[in-house]
Each structure stands twice: as structure tokens, then as C-alpha cells.
Amino acid sequence: EAQVTQNPRYLITVTGKKLTVTCSQNMNHEYMSWYRQDPGLGLRQIYYSMNVEVTDKGDVPEGYKVSRKEKRNFPLILESPSPNQTSLYFCASSLSILDRGYEQYFGPGTRLTVT
Amino acid sequence: LAKTTQPISMDSYEGQEVNITCSHNNIATNDYITWYQQFPSQGPRFIIQGYKTKVTNEVASLFIPADRKSSTLSLPRVSLSDTAVYYCLVGDTNNAGNMLTFGGGTRLMVKP
Questions:
Q1: Residues 6+ positions from A94 with CB-CB distance below 8 Å
Q2: Which of A74, A108, B2, B77 has the fewest CB atoms within 10 Å, counting from its CB?
Q3: Contact B98, A97 (CB under 8 A)
């Protein structure tokens, strides 16, 4: 089954404790992206990756890191989480946005709480 | 920065046609317009996409005027299960990147 998976689905952590949210897709998609969703602010793009070893900042990259060492995986890293990073996070993938438009497949989401 | 504007909410009744408009005045020449549906606690789901004129699929139609500064998602004969948030998405390729910018979303409530 074609899908985007994220782990963990729920996470409660404390300020400053490094964490990684994993994202994996099995569709051989080139484009992958992370979004955060907050009440009243909609979906905001954090980072995206056009292909392996190619990553770029989105709208709200501060406090986050990503890597794309393999085509299927795109982990989101919070080196020193803070309470303002409490949010619902979505990973998404797309075949290619250059000539195929923006049809993205989204993961189920990771609800992160930083205390 | 490409920006989209949508109505915050809309109400409708079962069986009616619903039209949701998105404004994207700064859309770049090569950008697509894409619409998503999102239910609570789920990731957004792709509905329809277009570049210009009209696109129709089994669930919706998308109308894009010649100037492409807006687009209208049309949902024919909505049902209670269409109650969701609908997002308009355009690219941001004007900024020499490939960032994608979602609108704030339109919360559609379908009543019996």
C-alpha cells in the first residue's frame, strides 16, 4: 500500500531534549516536506527536499533540521525543543513538483508537546 | 512571498453545490493551484489541481480565470461527510525556490 508513515504519532518531551521525528514513503517520490499545523495558522512548511541530499528552508525553519540521505526517508530533528514548537506535524511526499504540480501524500501526523 | 486568501468558514446544506474561492494575486507563471481536504486529526488529502481554465474530476471542479489570480473549488451536491477544512495551495517559485504555501483554510459545515 502506497503510504507515508511517521513516528512517533504522539510525543511529550521537555525543553531542550533533542528529538527526531521519522518520515518514510514507499512511493519513490522525489519531493518530501515537513509542515506544522497550529490552530488559527493553518499549515506552514518547515523544510522541503527536492531529492536526495537537496534540502531547503520553508516558511518556518527556525529551530528545526532535516536530512535526506535516502530517497524514502526525511527525518525532522529538533536539537533543542522549546514550548513554542508544540504543534501537530505532518510529513508529505510528492512524485515531483517541477512538472507534476503539487499533489502531495500526507502522513498521519505527529502530535508533539514540549513542556 | 506567494500568499493565498480564503474565507474562514462556510455553511451549506446537504445536496447543495458549494463554491469556495481562493485569492492568489502573486501566483507565478508556472505555478499550479491545488486544493486539499482535511478532516480532524488527519493529514490533508488531495482533491484537485489545475493550471488554467477548468478541471473536473469525480469529486470536484476547479475554475481558474484567465488572469489566474483566483480559483474556485466547486463541490457538487455536498453531503454531511464533506464537512471538513478545505485548503488552497500554490507554489512560491517566484522566490527561486520550491516552497509551497497553503492558504488559511475554509471550514465547511454541511447541515442536514
A1: A29, A30, A31, A32, A33, A100, A102, A103, A104, A105
A2: B77
A3: yes
* The pLDDT value given to residue A49: 94
Per-residue pLDDT, B31:
85
Q: What are phi and psi of B80, to 5 degrees?
A: -60, -35
Compute the count of residue pairs across chains A and B with CB atoms less than 8 Å apart.
67
Segments of chain A scoring below 70 in pLDDT: 99-100
> Which candidate in A94, A102, A111 is best for mutational testing of the B interface (most B CBs within 10 A)?
A102
Grid coordinates representing B87 are 485548503
Chain A contact set for B52 (CB, 8 A): none
Query: Element (H or E) spanning B38, and its range?
Result: strand B33-38
pLDDT at B96: 52
CA–CA dist B35, B105 (Å, integer):
10
Cα distance from N-terminal residue to C-terminal residue, chain A: 36
* A90: contact with B, CB 8 A cutoff: yes
DSSP 8-state assignment for residue B5 = B
**Which residue in B34, B43, B105 is closest to A106 by CB distance?**
B43
